[in-house]
Amino acid sequence: MDAFLKKEDKYIKILQVICDIKGINENEIFKILRDRECKYLLFLLLKKYRCTDVNNIQRDFSIESKKTINYNIKKAEEKFFVNKSFRDMYFEAEGIIDKTTE
């Protein structure tokens, strides 16, 4: 049960950090998927922190299949290796998450 709560806390923290970085209101998290960089950042962070639970993602973003999640993770990894500003944003978000969840 404790491990589940930690994953849920990390999932929530990832959403908060992305909202803060992109200036999105937490009540409007659906906007994360409209912005490609934001969406890819979300999926990379979810993968890193092992929060790719389909139920949470389906609840918040209406993504229904693991296949869609995996496709977005693959595209995000490609963007990570090609785009330096995206990498910088990823490392910034990762740093914030690591500091606040220790």
Automatic annotation (TrEMBL):
GO molecular function annotations of the record: isomerase activity
Record keywords: Isomerase
UniProt keyword Isomerase present: yes
Superkingdom of this protein's organism: Bacteria
Entry protein name: Ribose-5-phosphate isomerase
Lineage, opening ranks: Bacteria, Bacillati, Bacillota, Clostridia, Eubacteriales
